[in-house]
Structures are given as structure tokens and as C-alpha cells.
Amino acid sequence: MKTEKGRAKMDEMPTNLKNKPLKRSHHPERITLSDPSLIKLDHWMGAVHAVLKGSRFSRSDMINWFIERATAELSQSEIKLIRDKYFDPHKALEWALQQIKQAQKQGQKVDAKNLLKEIMDHAETSQRKKTHDKLGSKNDQSKPGAEIP
């Protein structure tokens, strides 16, 4: 009667339970939204509630709806944008050190030079992007009165 994930198959369930949502057996990770994201989410929620009066459509429902509509795989350009915004060279070096220690414990050889080179390449790309973004916002000619230093 149960599938491999422990859920009953729909055709084997009693009729009165088929339309009820299944309860989760675990608690999902809590997610903290940035202020701009929260403002945007609240705006969308207002638009939905203005049309679907009395609905029980929650913030979690909205986020799940967006995630379910998204493609299963991130594109390389999306991954690059994430790297450019969130790459932290200090965290990457800590990760590399852990990888080296773990490999040494297992008696494996690690090419630390290539590992560090890859991290530094990511760090340089990320830093160039952040510097370019800062300069772009300072030198934005679309703003009235903007000047090039």
C-alpha cells in the first residue's frame, strides 16, 4: 500500500482521504528573505489576494509555486551570476583545506596547486564583477547630473 517514500498510492487510499493533502513527515529548512525580496513577495501576495479574496494562499505557497514553475536545472549563465554575487574566497579556501585534509586521511594525493588556482580564478572573476558593478553605478550616465571622474 505504500510507495518507496512511505506514502500510500492514490488508488489504494480510502476515498475520503484522496483529496486531502498529505502531511509532511519532516520540517523544511527555514529560509530568510532579504528586504527587497520580502517587499516584492508582499506586493505579489497583495495582488493575488486582491483577486482571490478569502483564499488561503500563503507566502510559502507563492515561493513553492515559483520553484515548481522553474526549470529543474540552472543554466551556466545563472550559475555564473550566482558565483559573481555570492562567491566568498575565504569560505572557498576553508573548503579546500578540508578537502586536502580529508584526502590525506584517506591516503590520497591532492593537487593543492590546481585546487587553489581554481579558487583564485573564481575569486578574481567575482572581484572583477563586483568592482565593475560598483564603478557602473557610480558612472551611470542615465542619472541626471552624473559625471565621469
Going by helix content, strand content and strand pairing, the class is mainly alpha
Strand and helix order = HHHHH
Compute the gyration radius: what is it? 24 Å
Please, how many helices? 5
The poorly predicted ranges are 1-14, 139-149
Identify the notable features of this structure and list them briefly:
149 residues; disordered C terminus
What does this structure look like?
With 149 residues, the protein is mostly helical. Among the domains are: 32-70, no CATH class; 76-138. Helix content is 56%, strand content 0%. It is built from 5 helices and no strands.
Write a brief caption for the model:
The chain is mainly α. The protein has 5 helices and no strands.
Outline the secondary-structure elements.
Blueprint: H1 35-51, H2 59-69, H3 76-86, H4 89-105, H5 112-138
